Structure formats: C-alpha cells, structure tokens
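Following up on my earlier thread - several people asked me to post the actual chain instead of describing it. Fair enough. Here it is, all 634 residues.
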Amino acid sequence: MTVSSNFSDLSWHDLHQWAGETIVTRGKNYQSRVSDLRLFSDRYLLAWVRGREDYETVVWIDDSGALERLCSCPYWGPCKHSVAALLVYNEILRSGKSVTEAKASDSRLELLHGYLEGLAPDIKVSEAMGARDKMASALAALDSTELVALLLEVAQRDVEIQEFLELRLMPADENLQPVIDQLQRDIKATVQQQGRRNHWGSEDHTPDYSSIEERLSLLVCRGCYEPVIELGELLLEQGIEHIENSQDQGETQIAIAGCFAEVFQAVAASGRSAAERMLWYWDLQLEDDYCLLEDVGVVPVDEQALMIDDWVEVAHYYEAQLQTAPRSQKGEQDWSARYRRSKLLKNVQRAWSAAQEPEQVTRILTVELPYGECYLELVDHLLAQGATEEAKAWSCRGIRETQNGSPGIAQGLRERLPKIAEKAGDVALAAAHRVASFVDSPTVVVWNQVKLVADKAGHWPAVRNALLQWLESGNHPAQQNGWPLPDPGLPVRVTQRGGGWQRPDHFPGYAELIAIALHEQRIEDAVGWYQQQPQPRSHSHTLADAATICCPALSLQIWQQHIVKLIAEVKPRAYREAKPFLGKIQALMSATGHSAEFGVFITKLRLEHRAKRRLIEVLDEVEHHTLDKKLSDG
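Reply from S.P.:
Thanks for posting it. Predicted structure:
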C-alpha cells in the first residue's frame, strides 16, 4: 500500500488498508491512552501508548510512501497502538496545534536503532544514541570511589542488578554451586506460574524467565558449561509441562526458548565431541513435543562438523533405541508408541544418509514397515536412489496394505505413482494414475495435473470429455467407449464417503462441474450448473464475481442474500464483512445504469435496521465514501 509522504494526507481508507478494520476500531478505543506524542525529523511519530504496560511506538512513512511502524508490544503487524498514535496526531492537527519536536536522545528512537541506516539514512546512529554516549562519558569521568558508590546505589534499588553484579564480580575460585542450586529452585518456581492471555481484560501474565536467562549467561561466561547443560535439561523437562498448562499465545514458550540460547552456547563450548553434542541435541528434540527448541534460532552443533564415523556412531545409537522402543503392530491404535518410533526412525534415517550409507537406510525402513507403515519414506528414498522399479513395487504393496486402515498413506503412494511412471518414460500410464486420483478427489488442482500429463501423452481432449461425462452421469471414464489410457493396475479404492475422500455422493457432481467450468472460464456453463444445483449451493461467491457480465442479476441476488444473512448475525464483525459485498453491488449497479436502485436498497436496509448503529456506520462508509476523507478532516 502506497500513501502520501505526509501524515496529514492519510485517509481513513489508507488506514484501513494498512491495519485492517478490526485493528483500526481497537485503535480508536486506545486514543485516550496515548501520551507524550512527539515528531522527530519531521518524519517519525513517537508515542507512549498504555496497554498491559507502556509501549514505545514509532510510526513513519518510508521513501516509497508506505506506512511503517515499530512497537514494543508483542503484536506482529500494524497494531492498535500505532493506529491510536496516528489518530491522536491528526486530532492535534485538526485543533490547529502542533506536535512537539522529539530530541535525538529520545529513548523511543532506540526502536529504530537496527533500521536507521537502512530505512532512514538522514538520521545518524550517533544522534539517536547520543544519550548513551553522554552517559558513557560521564561514567568515565568518575573516579573509582564514585563509581563504586554509584554501583552500590543502583544495586540497592534493583534486586536483579544486585544479583547480576554479585555473580559477575564473584572471584574465579569461588564455589558456584549455591548459584546453580538457586537457579534450579528458581526454574521449578517459575514453571508454577501459569501463562495466560485474557482478551477481555487486562489480567494477562507471562512468566518472567529473564533472570534465569541472565544467570545462565553469566555461568557460561564463567565456563560452567556442564552445570548449564544440566539446567537446560531440567528446563526442558519442566518447561514442556509449563507450556502445556499455559493459556497464552506462545509467550511462555518464547520466554523459555530464550534461555536455551545460553544452554546451546554452553554445549557448543563444552569439551564434548561433535557426535556427543549431536546426540544430546537430538535426544532433547525427542522429548520436545511443542517444537520449543525450534524457537531458539540457533543450534548447539553444526552438522557439517560431523565426520562419517560420527554419523555412523549416531546411527547405531538411535538404531539401538529403536530396537527397545515399544512396538505397535498393524491395526493397533497405540499412537504414542508409533509417534515415538517415527521420531527415532527419522533420526536413524538422517544419520545413515549423512554417513552416505543408502543401503542401510533401505534396510531400516524395510524392517520398520510392520510397526510404522513408513511406505512413503521408503518409496521417496528409493526414488532418490534411482531405484524406480523397486519404488513402484513398494508403492503398489503399500496401497494394498494401508488403503483401509491408513488412507492418507495410501493416497500419498497413489500420488507418487504418476511420477514413477513418468520417470520410466510411460506418460500414458502416468496420465492413467492421475485420472485415478481425480476420480477419488475431483478438484481443480488434480484436474490440472491430469491435463498436464495427458497433454504430454496426446490424449487430453478425449480424457477431458470422458471426465466431464463421468461428473455428469457417474459413468467411469475407463468404461466409456474410446478411452485412450491403459489400466493403472491399482487395487480398487474404497468407495464409501469419509476419511477425506471427496468423490461426489451422487451425479451430476454439481460442485465439481461448477468449479471446473469457472476454472476454464466457461461462465455460462457454470451458471447453468449452479441454477440446477439443489440448496445449499456451492461456489456462490466465486460465481457471483465471475458472472457480472453474462448474468449480473444472479451476481446481485447472491450478494444481497449474503448481506441479509450477515446482518442477521447482529454482530459488528458481520456488518464489516458485509461491507465489501455492498461495494460490489454499488459498483455493478452503477456499471449497468441502475445507481438509483442501489440507493433504494441502502434506504431499505437503513429503515429495517435503524437501531443497529454499527451497521448504519458501515452503510455510511459505503454510500457516502466516508473512508475517502482524510484523517485530519475527522
């Protein structure tokens, strides 16, 4: 989205495009929470906005004319705090007042520190960091007595700073075990604090792991690698349960992950071999059901550092674990045992592959088939090795073994057969496999896959006609006269509905015929099938958008019915959802010379729903284009 380079030129439409209707509405409610609004370099709008805490907010318009923001709140995109700052700024402009210029030492500019030279070349880092440089100069001018007195005063005011200084200044030969023991107790105490997010109030709470992270960092600096590694193992064990019991949106997990950056640094700096570090890391991942370690951003060992012998050691280690892990035979529903074995198998496969032993990968995958149904992994491995015939044989066997109990695996194997046939140069057989997939799942995506390979085989026109006839009548393509493709030789697919199958219940398959007609731009055919289709009809919105030229009355009917349905929900969110459809009706009626009818439609809605204030606001925005007004105009 591109806007003017001046905040005062922003329109409500610009704001809605940037932040979305929901965030703009929330931002309006936060205007009273904005304080100390400043403008820096005539470009950067700075504000404090009160939420769960006081958030630093910076908003600006970049060189391309796009709105940008940075905020210390946890929200990932344009937030209500940045919207509130913009709205308050424009309120000030409307009042005829001006906004105070911010100083280069304003702490809120530190949000921009990583962006200054790239996004704002007119601002020097030294300017924004002037306050820090000034402080550094002042501290350097103190003598040792004054500096000690200042540190003691600061430590008395803040317990965490006191703990930091005590640990940082501890003599090298002093016993650190009390510090380690206290960290253990603090980890166990912190995991008892439940993370929660209350969307209706201000009772949010994220457990504070920052002190634990800082002390782990200090222990690493002191060379206490093994104790930190043990603390990391405790933190994972306790942290997984903590995440499981928290009711927030991942804040607890992010806080715990921050501690593991220090733990991983300890592992990397320890005297453990590359293989030992890899085993430790993979063992931790086996216990990590929430992918916590993926949020750390770093790993404790570089896989490139492992030699062939290291990978063989890792492979043997996990293969031994696989031998003793609980086994779930075919038909048994012990998903926990299967999940554990699948993770162990993945480690074995990765290690043997890194050790450049493809035969070992084939062996372990074949042995594991009765317990993990790892047909997909085996077939993919064989294809990567160029063993096409073996991959085909295992695919067919896997389909027979899994199509009833594990249909997802069977479907995956069916999807690989066309690729196998193409690799073998049999394009007609590949097309036959794609047709079989389409009969099972007649979607536009699979239709395109059939078209691509049937075109190569020179049979697309005949195949297309047969597939359309099947959707209309239920007569299987292969049973029609003149069918050009060979029998794929697959086991008969289970025909009952459910388990993810998308085959039509009855024929004609209206939904599928409409979707394909729209895809091929045969709009009138799509309209014909739509009008024959029993209620509830499918593809209504897509059809309405496509039929504005050939059948505008139908488009208007679909949109009006949907608007009535949304209004009946009696929710502000639903009114907002109705707005784009109102806009479509307005545009189409105007294009077809029926603008007056739109006014009648809007007036009717106003009279029927005059008590619904939020709906009336939406109708005003559509009819009077209030969103085109500038923010500075109110």
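The chain has 29 helices and four strands. That should answer part of your original question.
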